[in-house]
Amino acid sequence: MTVKPIKTKKDYAQAMERLEMLFDAKKNTTEGDELEVLSILIEKYEDEHFPIGLPDPIEAIKFRMEQLGYNQADLAKVVGLKSRASEILNKKRKLSLEMIRQLHDKLHIPTEVLIQPY
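Given the sequence above, the corresponding structure tokens read:
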């Protein structure tokens, strides 16, 4: 099969079918090269047609807190006050630039997630 650009849903379906056939191809073989190129084309098509948005900033904070075993008091140490942490988690207070910096630095949440409106 000749690798070609993926422009339609039909092209995408055919590419996915071919990808499945090539999935176990060895690197540095003709099929392995085809698999690599096909994967790139599929990823490009999916990025354009099935974009995944960024998570809600507050949900991202809650998720990260859960991962780290943090509670509201731990978040208060990052954002300043316990009442402020509560307001943030309940979406009653917007994140300030300084809070975004602290959350990024201390919890390693990407700034592009934190700066979104909610």
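The chain has a mean pLDDT of 94. Try to locate this feature in the token string yourself.
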